[in-house]
Write a structure and sequence with these properties.
The complex is a heterodimer of chains A (about 525) and B (about 200).
Chain A: E1 3-7, H1 8-18, E2 23-26, H2 33-40, H3 43-47, H4 58-70, E3 75-80, H5 81-86, H6 88-97, E4 103-109, H7 123-129, E5 133-134, H8 139-156, E6 160-165, H9 166-169, E7 171-176, H10 199-222, E8 227-229, E9 237-241, H11 244-250, E10 261-264, E11 266-267, H12 271-280, E12 284-287, H13 293-299, E13 308-309, H14 324-331, H15 357-369, E14 377-378, H16 403-413, E15 419-424, H17 425-441, E16 446-451, H18 470-477, E17 484-487, H19 494-506, E18 511-515, H20 520-534
Parallel strand pairs in A: 2-3, 3-4, 4-6, 5-6, 9-10, 9-12, 12-13, 14-15, 15-16, 16-18, 17-18
Antiparallel strand pairs in A: 1-7, 5-11, 8-10
Helix pairs in contact in A: 1-2, 1-8, 4-6, 11-14, 15-19, 16-17, 17-18
Chain B: E1 2-10, H1 15-28, E2 32-36, E3 47-55, E4 69-74, H2 77-82, E5 87-96, H3 109-117, E6 122-125, H4 127-134, H5 140-148, H6 156-166, H7 172-194
Parallel strand pairs in B: 1-4, 4-5, 5-6
Antiparallel strand pairs in B: 1-3, 2-3
The chains are: A alpha/beta (about 525), B alpha/beta (about 200).
The structure holds thiamine diphosphate (TPP) and iron/sulfur cluster (SF4).
Iron/sulfur cluster binds next to helix 20 of chain A.
Chain lengths: ~525, ~200
């Protein structure tokens, strides 16, 4: 069949469509966003009525996916690594309920934190939940593993986690397609108590999960994605996970590694293969992108520390993304660096677009906060996080989605009044609403800015789940109507806006200010799409 | 045949369209390719790069090892210098000379140009001026592509075809401007090499 040029993300999406996907659930998050966007733009998905719009957050996405799997259909749920924290409750429990229709959870990790708050390794979540993990090395494997993963999920009635790093998610390569298969028909679980996690049932389900571990391990020993490639030089054995395999091969132009190599693409780890390598090789080098997950497991707590090399003993840097040069260094292969960067080089950090509505909001906030001591502006994640940088230096926190409102509330509880929260419209619908309810219930003296640019700008302009509903949500949660203000973040209204904000800062309860103006990138995008439509292309 | 290319610029300058034209051509020629892109945070006015790898043999890594890139193609002069550790000894830097100043500590442009001129193999051109003459400043990245074309080891006609294909939906006029821009960039390098 024809070869397609696909991002790793897109290969996963195409793989899912060809494997008979009925629905995809997700909240955007770099580097996972393009999986869902590919399905949203796919004719194949449209013709087969694949459900694909954005969810309010990763938890609601995971739960909806669980429901679709319950009904017997194949479903995928996608998120960035920190999204799995938000979805952790349904995720952990889905291992106990198990699946019915095939269910794959895709977590896209971001080693080196290209666009994230941390570089947590989702494989720990897979192990924590005791479910199988798939970790593709390249775009083709990403495609193939989806089909395999759905089959596995349906064979063992268990969700499967797929873990990819940014480098694979956002790199394009040729992918060969399989023939597409049909979606499942509706078919409920044989046992209608499977999903009822009352303690008495849950205990049964949990011991079932524990028993199944042996079978998952057996599958790993025989999987096409775990390969033992023998080598003559037994002074070193190399265990290499996912994308790290490419960096290893890159260092051998003829693609022949002299050492035995164990290529890992599926977990739980194939114990027998590892034992073979341990017994045959003098030393073990572990190459994995992310945390020293495999390394820690093999090294254990007390084992002979000298034999296992990797991130823990400094052979590989403890943090950050792998690359061919780091692997070369670990193998003792000569460094190939080019010229040095000239001394005049300066950093060019990301910045807000000119005419961005957030600029006017920050200018207003800076003016009203000027009389107070610094450090009272709690914020969140989105384009507006750039308000921490020069020239604004407005905000003092960015922790996890939704934390602005709740942190500001906590600070006022501690007596830091006034404290304000600055949150984007999409982040507000993701996790801001519940925190606002807490603040209302306590009548906390916080002023909440919901920066409504009518889109989820940071991740490329997806629809914001609460678009058109923000005032109603605030009212519904109990914010008094007199203390909800929509303002226009434009230079010409600056004075007027500052006056409104000052009044609300003085109010000893919850007030909400909604600076509303569309993101300029979004306006341009919409205009381009309109022209395209008008020209019928 | 192997070409490892680092594309450099500032978020929003459109280095991806250069990548897609070269990539499309590579596929037409039946070559293997890998192309890593940058999405998300760094897009907003920050420095961006893309690793584009083309080969007649299967490619292992999505990232080009340091010191192994054959070319740096940059749409901005300061950015053309940022990835020098990636370039191999005989590698070429092809860059626009028009600075994109969105930081307060942007180094003096003359110093930057001096650095570029001190590189053993470089082509530096006023891509925007040349693009304007071809019909639109927007085609500046295609001028750069034209200037890089002699180093790509791909037939020039194949690149022309790729432009015709990729711009087909934008109408004949825009296609013609971009083809003109491609030629103008190519001419610049040809004359430069002749001198
Ligand atoms: C749990 C979690 N999910 C997703 C993300 C990725 N993410 C970062 S900011 C953002 C959305 C921001 O949208 P909005 O709040 O509307 O602000 P804007 O960028 O539009 O200014 C997303 C989805 C994340 N960091 N954490
Ligand atoms: S993308 Fe939109 S919200 Fe983000 S900085 Fe640019 S204008 Fe502002």
């Amino acid at each position: 069949m024809q070869k397609l040029l696909l991002l790793g993300d897109e290969a996963i999406a195409q793989g899912a469509l060809d494997a008979g996907l009925s629905g995809i659930y997700a909240y955007p998050g770099t580097p996972s966003t393009e999986i869902t966007e590919f399905v949203q733009n796919s004719r194949q998905a449209f013709e087969n009525k694949v459900r694909c719009s954005w969810s309010a957050n990763e938890k609601t996405a995971m739960e909806a996916a669980l429901g679709m799997s319950y009904a017997g259909k194949r479903v995928m749920v996608c998120m960035k690594h920190v999204g799995l924290n938000v979805a952790a409750d349904p995720f952990m429990n889905s291992a106990i309920t198990g699946a019915n229709g095939g269910m794959i959870v895709v977590a896209a990790d971001d080693p080196s934190m290209h666009s994230s708050q941390n570089e947590q390794d989702s494989r720990f979540f897979g192990k924590f939940a005791m479910i199988p993990i798939l970790e593709p090395a390249n775009q083709q494997e990403a495609y193939d593993m989806v089909h395999y993963g759905f089959d596995f999920s349906e064979k063992y009635k268990i969700p499967v986690l797929m873990r990819i790093p940014t480098r694979l998610a956002h790199s394009r390569s040729g992918v060969e397609r399989n023939t597409a298969r049909k979606q499942n028909d509706i078919a409920l679980p044989d046992n209608l108590r499977q999903y009822v996690l009352l303690p008495a049932y849950a205990r049964k389900r949990y011991s079932h999960l524990l028993k199944e571990q042996v079978k998952y391990e057996e599958e790993s020993e025989n999987s096409q994605f775990n390969r033992y490639i023998d080598g003559d030089d037994k002074s070193r054995g190399i265990i290499v996970c996912g994308i790290a395999y490419n960096y290893l091969l890159e260092n051998y132009p003829e693609r022949k590694v002299p050492f035995p190599v164990l290529k890992i693409g599926q977990y739980p780890l194939p114990k027998k293969m590892i034992e073979r390598m341990l017994s045959e090789c003098t030393e073990l080098l572990i190459l994995e992108d992310g945390y020293p997950f495999v390394e820690e497991m093999i090294k254990g707590f007390l084992s002979d520390a000298g034999k296992v090399k990797g991130r823990l003993d400094g052979t590989i840097p403890r943090d950050g993304e792998l690359n061919p040069n780091i692997v070369a260094f670990a193998l003792g292969i000569e460094e190939t660096k080019g010229l040095d960067i000239p001394a005049l080089m300066v950093n060019r950090p990301p910045s807000l677009c000119s005419c961005c509505p957030h600029i006017d909001s920050f200018n207003a906030i800076n003016e009203v906060m000027a009389p107070f001591t610094k450090g009272r502006v709690f914020s969140d994640i989105g384009c507006y996080t750039l308000g921490a940088l020069h020239p604004f230096e407005t905000i003092n926190s960015c922790v996890d989605m939704g934390a602005s409102i709740t942190m500001a509330k906590g600070a006022t509880d501690a007596g830091l009044v006034p404290s304000i929260a600055v949150i984007g419209d999409s982040t507000f619908s993701h996790s801001g609403m519940t925190g606002l309810l807490d603040a209302v219930n306590d009548k906390s003296p916080v002023t909440v800015f919901i920066l409504d640019n009518k889109t989820t700008a940071m991740t490329g302009g997806q629809d914001s789940p609460c678009n058109g509903k923000i005032e109603d949500i605030c009212k519904g949660v109990g914010v008094e109507e007199a203390h909800i203000h929509v303002i226009r973040p434009l230079k010409k209204y600056h004075k007027e806006n500052v006056k409104i904000i000052n009044e609300e800062l003085a109010y000893k309860g919850v007030s909400v200010i909604i600076p509303r103006r569309e993101c300029v990138v979004n306006i341009n995008k919409r205009t381009r799409e309109k022209i395209k439509k008008a020209n019928n292309i | 045949m192997k070409r490892d290319i680092i594309l450099a610029g500032v978020g929003g300058q459109g280095i991806i369209s250069i990548a897609s034209i070269i990539g499309f051509t590579a596929l037409q020629l039946g070559l293997y390719m890998k192309q890593s892109e940058v999405h998300g945070m760094s897009q907003r006015g920050g420095n961006v790069q893309s690793n584009l790898r083309i080969s007649d043999k299967e490619i292992a890594s999505d990232l080009i090892p340091l010191g192994k890139a054959d070319l740096i193609i940059s749409v901005e002069p300061l950015e053309s210098l940022r990835y020098l550790p990636g370039l191999c000894k005989d590698g070429w830097v092809i860059t626009s000379t028009k600075p994109y100043v969105n930081i307060t500590n942007y180094p003096p442009i003359d110093d930057i140009l001096k650095e570029i001129k001190s590189l053993p193999h470089h082509i530096a051109l006023e891509a925007e001026t040349i693009a304007k003459a071809a019909g639109s400043v927007k085609a500046a990245n295609i001028v750069i592509l034209g200037a890089a074309s002699p180093f790509l080891d791909m037939a020039f006609e194949k690149l022309e075809n790729a432009i015709r294909f990729i711009f087909r939906k934008k109408g004949e006029e825009i296609t013609a401007i971009n083809l003109k821009a491609l030629h103008a960039g190519r001419n610049f390098t040809d004359q430069n090499m002749a001198n």
